[in-house]
Amino acid sequence: MHTSRRLAALGSGVFARSDARKQAYRDRSPTTGSLGLIDLSLGSSDLQPPSGVLCAMRDAIPAPSSSAYCLQAATAPFREAVADWCQRRFGVTVDPEHEVQLLVGSQEGTAHLPLAVLNPGDPALLLDPCYPSHRGGLLLADADVIPLRLQAAHGWRPPLKELSASVWDRLKLFVFGYPHNPTACVGDQELLDQIMHLGERHKVVIAHDNPYVDLALEGQAPSLLHSPGWREWGVEFFSLSKGWCLGGFRLAFAVGASPLIAALRQVKAVVDFNQSLALQQAAITALRDFADWPATLRETYRQRRDRVLAGFAMRSWSVPKPDMALYLWVPCPEAAAAHGWKDERCAAELLQRSGVALTPGSGFGQGGEGWLRMALVRPSSELEAAVSRLADAVDALA
Ligand SMILES: Cc1ncc(COP(=O)(O)O)c(C=O)c1O
Questions:
Q1: Are 163 and 396 in contact (CB under 8 A)?
Q2: Which of 76, 102, 245, 312 has a CA between 20 and 30 Å from the CA of residue 377?
Q3: Which domains does the chain have, with CATH numbers?
Q4: Phi, psi at residue 289, to the nearest 5°?
Q5: How would residue 28 be classed by pLDDT, with cut points 50, 70 and 90?
Q6: From CA 336, how far away is CA 196, in angstroms rounded?
Q7: Which ligand 1 atom minimizes the distance to the CA of 177?
Q8: CB 140 within 8 A of CB 10
Q9: Is 310 helix (H, G, I), strand (E, B) or coil?
Q10: In this predicted model, what pLDDT tens digit does every residue of 39-92 receive, in sequence order?
Q11: Is the pLDDT of residue 31 over 80?
């Protein structure tokens, strides 16, 4: 069977590879008597959504309108709830009709946007490492992908000075996000303002992926909605997956320049209709009645982070302190390098030897090579057990 060149460029995807390794581990462990799997490879939290949100969804399910196809007009109450949230959260007035779009996830939005704004071969910039849908979306749109390499030595900040005015003049799109997955840096407003300003000056669409906006543990997470210019050349993606623990329900939204929202809507209209009104009712309830929910999660993540960091330190494994909740960005142990293992092999070997699943950094781009991402998505005691198992496995290697 022939498949497209595009598909070959996409590759198998880091989460799919890691899923296969975890399944193989689970299948084998009853016979080998291995330790139970501790899966820290996905940013899918064990923490709970507000029960009021689930009740709102449950109550809306029997309504006939929840079973019907939902076209754009019927998403108006959701879009209005988003506009109200933007007003309260950022003090920014947003037009719910023209500047808001419901999404199946921030992943879906960032993956579809390039189809709406790029022609094949158009140059588009992304951060390296970055969340996989940023690269995937550009590849699906046959973009000329330009990676902007982030480095630990520069605090994982984008080296904007490396981009000349002529590069900016050629660019059509820049996709990025702070707080940044996988490096767990929060970023700052000045950075976003600078990028938005460059976008306006050089007529580049600036797409900012912001599912962690309420999950900074240190400092303030930036938002493109605070950067003058978003209404002309910017779009920002928000999600209910992380702050409200609703990842499985696939609820997110874009807020942006009206021509960009219209273009994204046009692409999405080909692909599918919208989620059930029962799901939208859950999202409306979350944004309206539980806007503080993400803040209540932060304390739990902070405790987890601090206990895990202490565990690593006790085992002489030096891990930088992340500024955002949810992830630790962990350097591969020297013992792995001594065996000639790159991060993907290192993650596979650590899984085999400790039963702890981490994500290899190179799965987010070459800039992530040599690193492993640990998601803090289990209770502290389990995370501490994971650190101790990992450190035992590394000690045994040495
Ligand atoms: C930067 C980034 N964007 C998007 C997503 C996916 O979000 P959603 O569940 O809204 O698709 C993630 C999930 O880990 C992420 O880290």
A1: no
A2: 102
A3: 5-48+293-397 (3.90.1150.10), 51-289 (3.40.640.10)
A4: -105, -15
A5: confident
A6: 40
A7: 1
A8: yes
A9: helix
A10: 999 999 999 999 999 999 999 999 999 999 999 999 999 999 999 999 999 999
A11: no
Q: Write down the H helix ranges in 69-212.
A: 76-90, 106-117, 132-140, 165-170, 189-202
Contact by Cβ (8 Å): 182, 368 = yes
Q: pLDDT tens, 385-398?
A: 999 999 999 999 98
Task: In whole angstroms, give the CA distance from residue 114 to residue 137.
Answer: 6
Count of CB atoms situated within 10 Å of the CB of 397: 17
Strands of the sheet containing 359-360, edge to edge, are 327-331, 371-375, 359-360
Q: Are 236 and 82 in contact (CB under 8 A)?
A: no
Distance CA 156, CA 136 (A): 21
Q: Which residues pair with 206 in a beta bridge?
A: 174, 234
Burial 83-111 (b: 16+ CB within 10 A, else e): bbbbeeebebebebeebbbbbbbbbbbbb
| For ligand 1, atom 6: residue with the closest CA | 107
Per-residue tokens: 301: 């993540």
CA distance linking residue 367 with residue 157, whole number of Å: 12
How far apart are the CA of 212 and the centre of ligand 1, in A? 9
* Residues having CB within 6 Å of any atom of ligand 1: 43, 105-107, 131, 177, 181, 209, 211, 239, 241, 247, 252
Query: Cα(397) to centroid of ligand 1, in Å?
Result: 34
Q: Measure the CA–CA gap between 48 and 59, rounded to whole angstroms.
A: 19
State how far the Cα of 245 lies from the Cα of 215, in Å rounded to an integer: 12
pTM of the model: 0.97
Rg, C-alpha atoms of the chain: 21
What number of residues does the chain have?
398
Of 270, 264, 211, nearest in space to 234 by CA: 264
For residues 219 and 253, is the Cβ–Cβ distance under 8 A? no
Determine the 3-state secondary structure of 139 from DSSP: helix
Dihedrals φ, ψ of 329, to 5°?
-110, 105
